[in-house]
Amino acid sequence: MMLLIRPVLAEAKEPELKRVDMTCYTHTGNPCSNGKMPREGICAYQEQYLGWLAIVYTDNNGKPGEIIGYYEIFDTGYGIETYVVNPDTGKNYGSLEIGTSIDIFQNSLEECYEFIEEHGDTAFIQIVYAEG
Predict the structure, then answer these.
(1) What is the spatial distance between Cα 58 and Cα 37, in angstroms, rounded to a whole number?
(2) What is the pTM assigned to this prediction?
(3) Are the CB atoms for 132 and 25 separated by under 8 Å?
(4) How many of the other CB atoms lie within 10 Å of CB of 112?
(5) What are 57-69's pLDDT values in tens digits?
(6) CB 3.0–4.6 Å: which of 27, 94, 100, 116 could bond 78 by disulfide?
(7) How far apart, in whole angstroms, are the C-alpha atoms of residue 87 and residue 15?
(8) Which residues pair with 53 in a beta bridge?
(9) CA distance 37 to 19
């Protein structure tokens, strides 16, 4: 008897685009959540995505626009206070914790202001697993 085994492949899907609030942060003297010092090209987002890549697009009137950049998710944090309550603590979750905002690292406070002025305070993101 001969068995024919054919692998079943999961249907590939494009990573979803998600609209988020966008903020910036700069040097604090502290390392990122992954232990490395912050640098241009990194961002903070949900902890479960540490080491992943965020592709950030402009928000073109509620639709994804042009690519702003590619940012390694090296950091986490609290973000902006939300109305979502953590049942364990009774305190509100932050927007970074629940994935409704992204925080892009810049080298100076001036660059933070310029970045938001140029790109706006909302964006679309795709979170993808990428190594290298």
Answers:
(1) 27
(2) 0.84
(3) no
(4) 18
(5) 999 999 999 999 9
(6) 94
(7) 30
(8) 72, 128
(9) 27
